[in-house]
Every structure is written in C-alpha cells, then in structure tokens.
Amino acid sequence: MTANNAFYAQSGGVTAVINATACGLIQAARRLHMQDPARIGKVYAGHDGILGALTEDLIDTSLESDEDIARLRYCPGGAFGSSRYRLGPLATHRAHFERLIEVFRAHQIGYFFFNGGDGTMGAAWHLSQTLAELGYPLTVIGIPKTVDNDLALTDTCPGFGSVAKYVATSMREAGFDVASMARTSTRVFILEAMGRHAGWIAAAAGLASEREGDPPHILLFPEVRFDATRFLARVDDCVRRYGYCAIAVAEGLCDDGGCDIGSGAGSAGRFLVELIHDRLGYKYHLALADYLQRAARHLASGTDVAQAHALGVAAVERAVAGRRDIMLNLRRLSDRPYRWEIGEVHLSEVANREHRMPAEFIAPDGFHITDACRRYLQPLIEGEDPPPYRDGLPDYVRLANQRVVRRLLPFAP
Q1: CA neighbor of 397 nearest in space, from 23, 87, 116, 62
Q2: Are 235 and 276 in contact (CB under 8 A)?
Q3: Strands 43-46 and 58-60: what pairing?
Q4: Angle between helix 302-320 and 18-35 (nearest 10)
C-alpha cells in the first residue's frame, strides 16, 4: 500500500497562531485528497508532537468536522499538544528511529510536517537523514514557528508578530497608567519579555513610542552588553526629565560572563528592579509577560495569522509536488505596502541556527531601536483577526482528538 498519509507534529513553545498553521495544513490536505485520494491520505497529528509518533499516540484529524478545523485558525496553544523532546544520534538511539519506522509503516505515513523553531529544523533534518539511512525515505517538510523570531533565513517567524503586537500594546497601555501615578507612586515600570539570546520581542515594545518622552524609555537586549552604571544613569535621567521611566528587558540580560544576569534574583526583571531600588530608591512595578504574551490570540496580528495559515497550506502543496527536506520561509518583497511570498530553504541551512538582532536595528547608545528596526517590525504587528466571542469571552474550539487504534506493542521513549 502506498504510504501517502501525513504526520503533523507541533514542537517547542506554542504560539497564538501555530493552530492557524495546523488549520491551513489540514484544510489543504482535505482539498487535495478530494481531488485525488492517491496524492495524500489522512493527516495524523502526534499527541505531544514527536512523542506521539514514538508512542503510537496518533490523532486522526479526519474525524474532526470542517467547521471545527476552520475554528482552529482562531485558537491559541497547541491543539494536539507540543513537545521539547529531542531525538538523539543514531549510534545511541537506534531503537527510537526503528520505532518511528515501525509506526510510520503501520499507518502508511509518507509525509512528515514538523512545525517549530531552529532546534526543530535540526531535528527534522536529522530525522530525514537517519530514516533514509535505515531504508525508509520520508518526505520531511519544516514549517517555521517561534515567538522569539530567531530562526535564520526567513523574514519573520509565525508567532512573533502577535507577541510583538501584544508587548507593544501592553507597553503603551502601561505607560499611560504609570504616567498618571508617577508623581506620588510608581516611578519605574519594567516589562520583562521572552528572548534569552535574541532581543526581538523586547525590541517590539519600542513600537509603543511615537515621540520624545513616550514609553518605553529604555530597551535592554541580549545583543548589548549590560553596564549597570550606564543603565542607572539613564533611568535617573528619565525620571528627572519625564517623571517616570518605562523599561522593556529581554529575559536574557548579558555581560562578559554570559546571559544569565538576574538568575540569582529569579529573573532579569527582578534583578533590575532590585538594583534600581537599592541604588536610586525609586518605587517600581515589575510585569512578566511570560505565557500571556504568546497565548494572547485575542490580540493576534492579522499579518501573523495570515502567514501562519498560508505556510500550512503551502507545506502540503509542496510536499505532494515532490519537494522534501526543506523549510518553508517568508520573503519580504516590500515594506510599504508590506508584501511577502513563501519560499523555501534546505533544512541543512537552518538546522540549529540562531538569528539575532543586527547591529543596524539597535540605537548607537544600545538603549532603543532604530528607524530601520521600526520599518522591519511595523508591518508584522498590523491587522486584526479577532476570534469569535461568546458570553463576553473568546470562544475557542476544543477538538475531540480521537486516537487511531494502536497496531504495535507499547514503547517507552
């Protein structure tokens, strides 16, 4: 029997739009299956990503209604469960790869769609090479996803635009709050965003400022060496000039010793507020965007949703056309109007590569973003695509996630 079923796995930290990619992928597979069942069969999703393949815990997406699959476009989180599980080398994990082949053969799986970041692309390339070596060639397609925006060779990563919109909005709104209370209360507000090695999300908070004196007044990036003396001087100057100081910091705060400043205090943000209080005596408030920033589907970027969905569609179309061992990417054609297209790069080119903010996106003093950075970021947060609401709250779908009947003996990863 021809192995024309597909396996889809969500990998790594989830986003507000990863389910939009799943939606596009499943819809495209259904459309092509209707046209020619021999080209592609069912789409099985791995429960908790790649672990679902190893444990033969497969979800039959064909049992979900077209209406519920369409509603995935508006749902945050990972509808099928995600995983950070990593496959080891063949020399020490041969049983794992042989198990994958057993599962794929048992369920006639010939397509593998891996939806994740740079580590996922490395795993996808490793998986493709290893299974081919073991005699089971598989059509592997990587689909980009990461809120950190640190995946190489793509203009942006689905998930980032929505986080950027959330962080910039939060900074603007909090700025109004702090400004109204600064004379008798909080003088310093710090928002800690995700980004351990790359400052893209913290940079996006800079979009909240439109003119001199607007928050955020200071941005701190992993790409810039932290200098406590310079930082405190800038904070003090902002408070004296504007009455308060609003700061966005990436969770990775770096100096010559590495990017774990604040680990002893609990976080980079906690380290900063304690430093400010001890040295300058200002009252402060600290907010950690944490999971809220990547789960906020109600405030998702229309651009981000559209790109995430389109990549899911393109993944299936290119797979059935014979493309393999590629990651789809986004190519920017122009800033204004923002135009983009879907391209592709070989998995080996992006595997485990990290893309940090370029120097031309960081202000000369290291405390803010440049106009070039604004031109890059602005279109990524534009457009609204709100979910449906019911009784005042977002009405998100919960799929039935019915399992495929297991055909093999249990396996413990």
Answers
A1: 23
A2: yes
A3: antiparallel
A4: 40
User: Domain 160-295 class?
Assistant: alpha beta
Region 104-117 average pLDDT: 97
Q: Where are the domains of the chain?
A: 5-147+298-352+382-394, 160-295
Residue found by looking up tokens 């990651």 in the block: 327
Contact 218, 367 (CB under 8 A): yes
CA of 379: how far to CAs of 155, 165, 336, in Å?
A: 12, 10, 8
Q: 8-29 pLDDT, tens per residue?
A: 999 999 999 999 999 999 999 9
pLDDT on residue 20: 98
Q: Does 5-147+298-352+382-394 match 160-295 in CATH topology?
A: yes
Q: How far is 51 from 14, CA to CA, in rounded Å?
A: 16
The residues annotated with a catalytic role in the active site are 148
Q: What is the pLDDT, as a whole number, of residue 114?
A: 98
User: Residue 206 is encoded by which pair of tokens?
Assistant: 């800079």
> Mean pLDDT throughout 378-395?
98
- For 274-320, the DSSP string reads HHHHHHH---EEEEE-HHHHHH-GGG-BHHHHHHHHHHHHHHHHHHH
Contacts of 369 (CB under 8 A, 6+ apart): 203, 206, 219, 361, 362, 363, 377
pLDDT confidence of residue 400: 97
Give the chain's length. 413
Please identify, in words, the CATH class of the domain defined by 5-147+298-352+382-394.
alpha beta
The answer to which of 66-70, 90-94, 298-302, 318-322 has the lowest mean pLDDT is 90-94
- Residues with Cβ within 8 Å of 116's Cβ and at least 6 positions away in sequence, in order, are 10, 11, 12, 123, 142, 143, 144, 145, 146
The C-alpha R_g of the chain, in whole angstroms, comes to 23
Please give the pLDDT value at position 352: 85
Q: Is the pLDDT of residue 1 over 70?
A: no
Whether 411 has a pLDDT exceeding 80, the answer reads yes
